Amino acid sequence: MAAQIWGSEKRARRRREISAKIAQMPELHDSKPLPFMTREEKIMESARKLTILTEKMGQIIDPTDPAELYHLNNEVLGLEGNPMALHGVMFIPALSAQASDEQQAKWLPRALRREIIGTYAQTELGHGTNLQNLETTATYDLATQEFVLHTPQITALKWWPGNLGKSSNYAVVVAHMIIKAKNYGPHPFMVQLRDEKTHEPLPGITIGDIGPKMAYNIVDNGFLGFNKYRIPRTNLLMRHTKVEADGTYIKPPHAKINYSAMVHVRAYMLTGQAIMLASALNIATRYSSVRRQGQIDKSQPEVKVLEYQTQQHRLFPSIARAYAFQFAGAETVKLYEHVLKEMKSGNVSLMADLHALTSGLKSVVTYQTGEGIEQARMACGGHGYSMASYISEIYGVAIGGCTYEGENMVMLLQLARYLVKSAALVKSGQSSKLGPLVAYLGVKSEPTSLIDRIPNSGFTEYVKTFQHVSKRQTLKAADMFFGLMEKGEKREIAWNKCSVELNRASRLHTRLFIVEAFVRRVNEIADIRIKEALTDLLHLHVNYELLDIASYALEDGFLSASQLDYIRDQVYLYLGKIRPNAVSLLDSWEFSDIELRSVLGRRDGNVYENLFKWAKSSPLNKTDVLSSVTQYLKPMMEKARL
Ligand SMILES: CCCCCCCCCCCCCCCCCCCCC/C=C/C(=O)SCCNC(=O)CCNC(=O)[C@H](O)C(C)(C)COP(=O)(O)OP(=O)(O)OC[C@H]1O[C@@H](n2cnc3c(N)ncnc32)[C@H](O)[C@@H]1OP(=O)(O)O
Ligand SMILES: Cc1cc2nc3c(=O)[nH]c(=O)nc-3n(C[C@H](O)[C@H](O)[C@H](O)COP(=O)(O)OP(=O)(O)OC[C@H]3O[C@@H](n4cnc5c(N)ncnc54)[C@H](O)[C@@H]3O)c2cc1C
């Protein structure tokens, strides 16, 4: 099963080897539990480990393999980030995709050797979503052949970029490029922020940390201002766009090609979210098979809480989602790598499809991951609320994904633009022009669903039902939009009035893609036992998901009330079938105890003893009487007693 999850036997074996090596290297372990550290201590601890990794990484992993890097990162540095997180996740990808060959030769080897640390500085205090209204300017000075970076007012301060505040000395900065008083829109520039020797901010730069956040507190998200700060013309990233010495602008082959670093993260973060969901579920499911509370049959001893159907219903559909996200994420990464290769050689024809797909997936996956992790926390009762479970930290980190790389509603609306264009093709009889991901929009469906009507139909009737609801909602939302425009509404006003319906269409389309990716994967599996276990999980997935969106299929009679009862029964049936495999389905992800960082989710199940040990190690327990007591509470009580 690990081979299915991680993509191959080899990958699963490599993960095990890497975990085993790390287990033998105490210098790479947390020196104490992260929840007991202050933010400064955590940052220090993480930087300490990063420097060891820089020395020893080659002995542990193949540093050119992103999957191995990611595993190393999760084991050693953990989910809460590290001082170079953005360096690997956005700075290097931005340079790789957007810098010319000459620029890459100058900067990439230095970045890869970690001579410099970089980040991606785009969002500002006043604007994150609406890139067209960013306020930082890069004005070309023809006389000196330099760009002058400037922050005209407080809302133009860069705000949020990870590791910008304290760790990075370089950044890819996105600013509006102005040449001879003409604004060419946001463009990426390579900018040195700090002196390479002293690490002091360079003159003209204001920089710092934005303060503690809901999670990710090892990352120094920062602010950055420029006061007429000059950089050479050749620091504009010029793979696709060029500015000649005389100020001539050569436009890129696609207007949004400079957004590729964002698409990179959107594509890669899906499996990251799957891992976080599976981690939280692993903790909750292991604990649920240790925790005994109450009886189902009063004549029997107390049961493991995992025996309760409500507990299974809380956890198992999310187990199915974690697998589904991992499979859909793997497909998306493949597609992204393909499109990136094509883009580099000038073919930009697939960018719109990739953008639509990653926008929808990013939104649905992060939202459902958040839901699943929060349910996992609640499923652990009181101990889930303790930082000893570590689930709240996983939740805080995962939920950040709903906001970064494009706020979820906004990204769903991006996919909706693509769906509406596709709907227009269907309406004008040009269904043959639909791309493969939306081809179903042009296919006439049956009048009613055949779920439970055709024996042994596998998942086909389920997929058709998802297609039907997605198609119907897309056409309905598009009709609403076109109808308003026909009545004379301006395009943007009409769009806003339909946006809730449009986003519903985007979610349904994305959920269909996730179901299809799961079905595709299960169909490919040769090993009978693995196929059986995953087929059970897929049964739970399609029935649970369909029940969740049933109103869309009920309202036009595509599903009947009796079919809905059948679907509900299937959910209960598969909860029971999955129960014996539940812990194994999560243990198959092979997270080590080092990586999980959870007292509740320990592999050996020795929860109570270790919870007590953990509590005793709290800094508050170093002394029996705290100074808050001697200084305030004790005098208060004494005064009251007088
Ligand atoms: C040991 C050490 C270890 C280190 C690490 C190891 C690394 C291993 C690698 C593994 C990676 C794992 C990943 C895990 C991730 C976790 C890390 C978390 C870090 C978080 C970092 C966060 C960073 C950020 O948030 S950066 C800032 C992101 N900002 C946004 O996303 C802004 C959102 N807004 C937008 O994208 C745009 O403004 C948008 C799209 C809303 C509108 O843009 P616009 O320019 O205004 O567009 P408009 O004129 O309206 O035109 C729309 C038009 O354009 C099309 N379009 C838009 N975008 C694209 C695109 N990208 N591609 C193609 N087409 C695009 C759109 O479709 C419209 O088309 P039409 O409909 O045809 O008009
Ligand atoms: C943990 C974290 C890490 C980050 N790292 C980085 C980084 O490394 N580099 C970087 O540059 N940035 C980074 N960011 C910033 C992040 O990319 C932005 O916060 C994000 O893109 C959302 O933009 P915003 O803050 O402007 O939200 P807003 O756009 O102000 O969103 C507020 C509300 O308005 C709604 N809204 C906005 N526009 C529309 C619209 N057109 N239609 C409908 N609704 C709309 C949204 O849906 C939301 O409900 C990070 C953020 C976080 C939380």
UniProtKB/TrEMBL annotation:
Pathway: Lipid metabolism; peroxisomal fatty acid beta-oxidation. Residues 259-420 form the Acyl-CoA oxidase C-alpha1 domain. It is found in: Peroxisome. FAD binds at T123, G162. Residues 1-117 form the Acyl-coenzyme A oxidase N-terminal domain. Residues 460-638 form the Acyl-CoA oxidase C-terminal domain. Signal peptide: none annotated. It holds the Pfam family ACOX. Keywords: ATP-binding, FAD, Fatty acid metabolism, Flavoprotein, Lipid metabolism, Nucleotide-binding, Oxidoreductase, Peroxisome. Its cofactor is FAD. Belongs to the acyl-CoA oxidase family. This is Acyl-coenzyme A oxidase. The lineage of its organism: Eukaryota, Metazoa, Ecdysozoa, Nematoda, Chromadorea.
